[in-house]
């Protein structure tokens, strides 16, 4: 635990029994299941993950570069009322992200009206002038979003960052649920948990819904991977296999007369939708990095001609930028005409002299991040940093303040987690997944809960030693019920895996 009194999502602020009333069934399960049995089940899950090859790469380490993400057997639970509020805020935010991307690569009203400084967008490394004026099929650019959330109290949720490029982690959400269904079936008899197993089908529906006009009733969809050396390759292959579509590398695709074709043993087959897991820089050597061997020459020309949909669209990185994030409340209000339902964490833009002065004076109390950073790299957590680390960041801030933002250190919520000494509170964050297609916006009733396994740590990233938990969304606020949405054999029973909010961005 950190120094602050964190809210425990099962036990409340007291951090001791009894659990919150609506979670009494989970509290009883924790009390009645011996610690050695919890450990046995957790080890069984991790053994399965290892056998399946569910690993990620840790770049820069000389040993154990391929490892599983540690799994924790105690689930994180959201009540239906909590989830309903979160879903409304997520839909509103993703609609605004799509409207923002459509605008800045088009009319740029938000810049003309002075809501955002023009140089913050047009001078940003993540802004892609090469695709300005290109409108994606159906006007949707952010088809798959992972919105990272943190919690500080019973009704206090904040957006930590937006992921609109190639958000990862959905395979862990699905595999974690599969493990829990197999190892802890009694929980699904006690709790009415919304199912997540139809995510691949809904992802495929989303992909088909944004196929270019004229693609026909059965558009051809593929997943484009940089290859098996990529840290998320397992997820790429998992999703392609689950959707029943081809997993391809750049060399498997060619562009002829602004149409994308896939090489097969039976000849060339036209491709309509590409779910790409390759960064913009490597997507098309004729437009971006000329030395890229991962992409497809001519892909952006085919995209500009309206002959292929790319999921997520090129140029989305500008919506991931943490300096842009700091303006999201204004962005939401500009496009949706209402206040943001999910607030940001207070953010200091170090590019602004007054903010820089404050940050430099309070570095030991703040979290400092690169505006284009990810994976927990390039980040300072002031309260746990050494004096040398703080001074290194001080020099970096003075030299290039525009590259950084800073935020207060929040008392992130905790969930009981299996530690060396037994169950203990550990800090968590949450990444729900939001799908946007021509038929509306869907929020998966679940997501990826990441947990900081080190005592007191606030860094949950897998690359920094974090683990994952299954995320239960209850179908009602009661503690138990006889009808489950997902039974112990993994079959969906009574409700769909996603709630849907019709309509595109305002």
From TrEMBL:
Low complexity biased stretches: 476-491
Ranges of Polar residues composition bias in the record: 492-506
Domain Circularly permuted ATP-grasp type: 75-452
Pfam families: CP_ATPgrasp_2 (PF14403)
InterPro entries: ATP-dep_Glu-Cys_Ligase-2, CP_ATPgrasp_2, UCP005522
Residues covered by region (Disordered): 470-506
Domain of life: Bacteria
Protein name: Circularly permuted type 2 ATP-grasp protein
Organism: Sphingomonas oligophenolica
């Amino acid at each position: 635990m950190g120094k602050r009194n964190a809210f425990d999502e099962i036990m409340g602020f007291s951090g001791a029994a009894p659990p919150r009333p609506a979670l009494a069934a989970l509290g009883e399960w924790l009390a009645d299941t011996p610690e050695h049995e919890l450990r046995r089940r957790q080890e069984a899950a991790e053994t399965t993950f290892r056998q399946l090859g569910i690993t990620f790469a840790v770049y820069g380490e000389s040993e154990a570069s391929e490892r599983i993400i540690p799994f924790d057997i105690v689930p994180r639970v959201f009540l239906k009322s909590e989830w309903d509020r979160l879903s409304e805020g997520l839909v509103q935010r993703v609609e605004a992200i799509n409207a923002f991307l459509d605008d800045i690569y088009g009319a740029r009203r938000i810049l003309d009206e002075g809501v955002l400084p023009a140089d913050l967008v047009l001078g940003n490394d993540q802004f892609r002038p090469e695709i300005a004026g290109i409108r994606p099929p159906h006007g949707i650019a952010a088809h798959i979003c992972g919105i990272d959330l943190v919690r500080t109290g019973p009704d206090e949720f904040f957006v930590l960052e937006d992921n609109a490029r190639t958000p990862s982690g959905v395979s862990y959400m699905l595999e974690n649920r599969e493990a829990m269904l197999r190892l802890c079936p009694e929980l699904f008899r006690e709790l009415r948990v919304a199912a997540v197993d139809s995510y691949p089908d809904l992802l495929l529906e989303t992909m088909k819904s944004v196929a270019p006009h004229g693609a026909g009733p059965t558009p051809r969809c593929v997943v484009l991977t940089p290859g098996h050396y990529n840290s998320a390759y397992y997820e790429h292959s998992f999703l392609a296999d689950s959707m029943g579509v081809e997993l391809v590398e750049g060399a498997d695709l060619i562009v002829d007369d602004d149409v994308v074709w896939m090489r097969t043993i039976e000849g060339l087959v036209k491709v309509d939708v590409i779910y790409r897991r390759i960064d913009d820089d490597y997507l098309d050597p004729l437009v971006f990095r000329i030395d890229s061997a991962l992409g497809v020459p001519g892909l952006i020309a085919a995209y500009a001609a309206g002959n292929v949909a790319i999921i997520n669209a090129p140029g989305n990185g500008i919506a991931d930028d943490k300096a842009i994030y700091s303006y999201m409340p204004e962005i939401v209000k500009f496009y949706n005409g209402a206040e943001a339902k999910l607030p940001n964490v207070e953010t200091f833009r170090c590019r602004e002299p007054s903010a820089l002065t404050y940050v430099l004076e309070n570095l030991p109390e703040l979290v400092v991040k690169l505006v284009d950073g990810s994976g927990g790299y390039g980040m300072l957590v002031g309260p746990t940093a050494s004096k040398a680390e703080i001074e290194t960041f001080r020099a970096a801030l003075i030299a290039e303040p525009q590259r950084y933002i800073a935020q207060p250190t929040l008392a992130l919520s905790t969930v009981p987690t299996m530690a060396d000494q037994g169950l203990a509170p550990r800090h968590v964050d949450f990444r729900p997944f939001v799908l946007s297609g021509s038929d509306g916006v869907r929020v998966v009733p679940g997501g990826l809960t990441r947990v900081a396994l080190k005592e007191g740590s606030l860094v949950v990233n897998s690359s920094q030693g974090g683990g994952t938990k299954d995320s239960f969304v209850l179908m009602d606020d009661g503690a138990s019920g006889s009808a489950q949405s997902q039974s112990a054999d993994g079959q969906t029973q009574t409700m769909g895996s996603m709630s849907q909010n019709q309509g595109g961005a305002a």
